Amino acid sequence: MVKRLMILIVLINTCYLLNAQEVKREWDTGAANEENSKIWEKIDARPVPAWFGDAKFGIFIHWGPYSVPAWSPAGTYTEWYQRWWYSNSIFGNNNPQANAIPDFQEKTYGEESSYYDFAKMFKAELYNPVEWAELFKRSGAKYVILTSKHHDGFTLWPNKEAQNARFFPWNAAEIGPKQDLIEPYMEAMRDAGLKAGLYYSLYEWYHPWYQERSEKFITHHYHPQFKDLVNRYAPDLIYADGEWNDEDSYWHSGELLTWLFNESPCNDDLVINDRWFKGSRFNHGGYYTTEYDAHAVEGERPWEEIRGMGLSFGYNRDEDIEDYNSPKALILMLCDIVANGGNLCLNVGPSADGKIPVIMQERLLQMGAWLNVNGEAIYGTQKWKKPFQWSNGSREYNFKEGKAYIEGDYILKQTVDPIPGKAVKEVFFTTKENAVYAILPKWPGKSVVIRDINPKKGSKIKLLGVNSELSWTKSGNGVLVELPDYDPAWELSDYAYTLKIEVR
Fold it and tell me: For residues 134 and 290, what is the distance between their CA atoms, to the nearest angstrom?
């Protein structure tokens, strides 16, 4: 009887304690939410450093074990190879088949193969970050972002957390390249005068701790690994990703960013993006991000569009020449984004040996040649009172209908290859100091009318790349600018032409 009574008392006390713990946990959660809101208020109030908004053009680099197969149906992301394979699912443009990756893997590498085998095959034997930096410099880019760790969890630097719960080497210093790939990248970019950024994925598709949503993934993996990356390299920019499944009550990214801004070796010019927890995009963090999109971000917050030259970030051997954007499309895309106050971060996907494919090199050099002449209208500019001059017609476009990603030819359809009945963007506008820049997608002929601008008498109008001043007269609420006969000797490309209009 006494023994039963003692058991009953223990059970009652246990229930009471559990109930009290539940009450306390509810109270703690409320307090934690309030504290977390205050943390994010401070983070959101931090201005995005000015260098980012002035840069306008950056380079993204996706490189890792997925660069070994370097294959996915054209219109899909190759860097998602592991996910497509293990989940037997896929999404993207061109209606890809769900079994495309499993079938390719078995046919190419055998049915006993594993994604983790690619680490050994990822050799980076031709990796030369100095050559990369020289190419990026010539492209006109001002900053670069390298994937330090994508969603597969493989790190490009010697990180001990990468092996957590795996029990085999999963970083570039211990397998594959057998070297730290980030340190020489950081040094080469900075020596070239470029800002050196790093991409970091919060989640990992098949990490056991993350699949269980264990707190250990945060306390023993995400946070210490992120701190290791920052403490080693003090990047100029951090591009977070892989946040979309979980709230900050799981990630505790606010706490991590508080450490980043107050205790890390990064300086005050550090830039971050907005991908830190579910719902944070366009709401919290640093600059806002879009991806394979064609719409401007409203408001005054700096923003950035990321996309590849085709429809993947990792190098895709299934893409052909028609899958790559033309240099004209890329340059007009840059003008379109900058006119709306944004940056373009254009991706290159090196092969597993570390070489950047020749077509990607060519596109970057073509952009650089245009920027050498017209960069004044891009770098350090702001939105003007209107971003475009439209022709008559409907401005309603739906480029995403039936597609996962908006393809780069959207800008050609809005400018030089119009859809019947649709309006086109005749001019892109930017402004800086006492000038408005009118960027023309095509050579207009003997004259062009720029509407809604009123330069004072005696103001100068010039064609960038040509020394002589242009004649102009007022025309309605704008100006009629007379253009000289086109001279093939001018060092101009036919991708776009820029008028500089003084508005003193």
Answer: 27
**What is d(CA 76, CA 359) in angstroms, rounded to the nearest whole number?**
19
Compute how many other C-beta atoms are within 10 angstroms of the C-beta atom of residue 383: 16
Q: Are strands 478-482 and 472-475 parallel, antiparallel or unpaired?
A: antiparallel
pLDDT tens column, 150-173 = 999 999 999 999 999 999 999 999
Beta bridge partners of 200: 149, 240
Q: What pairing do the DSSP bridges indicate for beta strands 288-291 and 271-272?
A: unpaired
Measured CA to CA, the distance from residue 45 to residue 452 in angstroms comes to 35
- C-beta of residue 477 within 8 angstroms of C-beta of residue 451: yes
pTM over 0.90: yes
Per-residue DSSP letter, 220: I
Q: Read off the tokens for 89.
A: 């699912």
DSSP 234-270: --SEEEEE--TTS-HHHH-HHHHHHHHHHTSS--TT-
Contact 243, 278 (CB under 8 A): yes
Q: Considering the chain, what is the average pLDDT of its residues?
A: 93
Task: Provide the CB-side half-sphere exposure for 314 (13 A, CA).
Answer: 26
Kindly tell me the burial class for residue 254, based on how many C-beta atoms sit within 10 Å of its own C-beta (0-12, 13-18, 19 or more). Answer: buried
Residue type, 205: W
Residue 347 to residue 359: CA distance in whole angstroms: 13
Question: What residues form DSSP beta bridges with 144?
Answer: 59, 196
Please give the helix or strand (H or E) that residue 23 lies within, else none. Answer: helix 2-45
Query: Nearest 5°: CA angle at 382, between 377 and 387?
Result: 85
